[in-house]
Specification:
two-stranded antiparallel ribbon, 2 strands, Four Helix Bundle (Hemerythrin (Met), subunit A), about 65% helix, single chain
Amino acid sequence: MSTHTLLTSLFQYKAWANHELFAELQRFDPETQRSELHAALRILNHIHVVERIFVANLQGLEHGYSASNTAETPTLDALYQAVQATDRWYLDYVAGLSTEQLSERIAFGFVDGDAGCMSREEMLAHVVSHGGYHRGAVGRIMTQLSIAPPRDIYTRFLHQAEPERRQASRAVNPQP
């Protein structure tokens, strides 16, 4: 599998995981679970802001953020729309990259003023892993409310997206 193919699959997974999580967040009661919903939105908004910062970094543009979150907390619906648009951007972006572009290093500035330099593929890997880490924190909030979080795992995505993989696995590893 090429790096390009893997990155495409990982960004498809990320978009799927975001969709699954936002669908489950609809189950929060906005009155009785207000503080927990707010905490989840703050975490998800942080993920989104960081992803937008890296959109700018990947393009060599100024991002306009002075922190890795915003002062205002968006609504669940507004944030979901913004996350979907960013997920589409990354999928389109990865689809258009060459092998040479993936390895190109780009200098940028972190919001704390520190300097950074990463290859495009390193930046893209960071975006995927960063979001997964923080979605797990939202899952913990859900668990504390006795709401089952989505099973946000890459293997689940792959087998749901391509159910024939289950059959291939049985052919390779038959059960006694």
